[in-house]
Amino acid sequence: MEIVFIRHAQGEHTINLPNSLDIRHPALTEKGKVQARNLTDIFDLKPTDIIISSPTRRTIETTNIFTERQNLKKYISPFIGPRMFPQNPEWITLACDEIYRRQDIEELYREFEIVDFNEDLWTTKFKGYVHRFIEWNKTLNCRIYLVTHDGTINNYRKIIGEEHVTRDDFVGEAGWYKMIL
Asked: Among 21, 76, 139, 168, which has the highest number of CB atoms less than 10 A from its own CB?
């Protein structure tokens, strides 16, 4: 199975640090919209591909721009929501990393199906959910794109078994990392 992790394109929360980290549900910048469009030149999307987005505005916007020329199955899942790297459950969630609630997604983003949405994911063990989510992905039997966040990508890589993953391995705005499982 092939999984392609894509980091969301440039969001408003990154252009005036550290003050911009207090923006709730930051959108993509104009540069971010261009970066998301450029993903279509990098990846040859097939009708059988599936896109799963983190439940944040910037990842959803990246997903919608990236897939605007394709009619693909799109999901939203908190399993790939923002995660600090390295993870510390005692850290406070930044305003920019607050995820949408289920009812917000159902109202604002009807083109997405929600995957096993659990509003308590911030306080539960992330590692167990990673393995469960990957196993669910394997049942889809197709190429999967996960549009998510740098910290989440690195946490997945580390939990799945890569050693020595550090902040230096962040892929950056609209960057990507492919895994074959």
From this structure: 76
Distance CA 33, CA 68 (A): 12
Give dist(CA 179, CA 181) in Å, integer: 6
Retrieve residue 132's tokens: 């469960």
- The tens digit of pLDDT for each residue in 35-81 reads 999 999 999 999 999 999 999 999 999 999 999 988 899 999 988 98
What does the block give as tokens for 23? 């923006």
Report the distance separating Cα 3 and Cα 33, nearest Å.
23
- In order of their start, the domains of the chain are 29-175 (3.40.50.1240)
End-to-end CA distance of the chain: 5
CA–CA distance, 64 with 33 (Å, rounded to integer): 10
